[in-house]
Task: structure prediction
Amino acid sequence: MSESKMTDEHLRRQFQDNLPNVDADHGWARLQVRLADELPSGSARPLRRRRRAMITAVAVGASVIVVALFAAAALGLFGGGTQMASVEVTAGPTGVGPGTATTTRGSHTGTTTSSSPGTTEVSENVPETTTSSTLLFPSQLSFMEELSGDGYQTAIVFTDQEGGTLITKVWIMVDSDHAARATNDVIFEHALDLAEKYGAADYTEGRLRVELSDAPPGELIKDHIIESRDFDLTETTTSMTPDTTADTVPTKQ
Amino acid sequence: MTDRKGVATDQGKPDSGVSLDGLSGCGEDENFESLFRRYYPRLVQTLCLTTLDRETAADAAQEAFLQLHLDWERVSHYENRVGWIYRVALNRCRDYRRRSLRVFRFWQTQPRTVAEAEDIVWEPEWDFLEALKELPDRQRQAAALHYVAGFSQQETAQAMGVSEGTVKSHLFRARETLRMKLKVES
Result:
């Protein structure tokens, strides 16, 4: 047996010797209690309805804020500076589940979920609405509008803080069931082209993360990220997170 | 200019339709309860060794199965639904960790409750636990999925949402650290 296999086998035994004992019956009983709490009528519907109602309320509230901001801007209540700020986006049905997200200035606050205001027939239609407040970059709406194609559609653009650095994130909803959906490579390529064209990551000094999600209605977008890639749109650097993205098999020393 | 392919990050989940070979025994007609009884213990064990906290592990596993119950109609048709459960559970663990960092000071002064996780009895060897603590989160996660859940590197990559190369890298580093800390003779 090779050296590494022996080590592997030894470690496997160590793990197995130190496993906790889990009582599945107790776990099942606990889950039943939780299900009873969450679903008084014994169905998932009430919880979903509550969640949808909350999402709708959040979306409506966000829309009101957006309108107020635009009105304030139109009235000249804000200075004419170029300061970038928060993004809150409500994307309409995208064929695979739309998303609603709100962020505050410079950071993504976590009210991030997909909503399902529409029904099945709606979900098969062309995306409806995209509402956005203060923009991260001047042509953000064009960027979001153009970044769509066969089986994919931009849902949200926001900034996020990671390890002390700010990063621009783009969430793209993809329809995994779409027979002729563009490949992930094609979508990333498209996103990168447009990001360069519109300076999507200027605010975050070129740091851009594009994530593809196939979250269905009622699901958290982040739970359904199918692929995620980092880009650095500055001239010099080629990689942002080499430590978490090593693609080579390390050799034993 | 950046590589046009970009750099894969540590986010993501398996593409739908991608099956986890090691989980192929999970038939589509398997009902929710049997799926729970079959995979819950192993999921909790894996999460315990990932989070090093049985309450967090139990909560995350319960959340994952609760979510599965809510989405049963859809997810039950997934070929890789066990991978989906692991993915959701790992995300929940990450959420808890973020939250716990925010309330760290508060919890420092609070006695921990064990009532919630009384279905889990865990008495790991001290040396082993200390060695695991030395590992970064991602390495510990990869090691637990590989050694406890019995996932292949490909399945581990799918559950973690990273490339296979990244998993190999994590596993290699984890193995080296554990080998040294536990003084495993090669």
User: Anything to note?
Assistant: Residues 79-132, 236-253 of chain A have pLDDT under 50 and may be disordered.
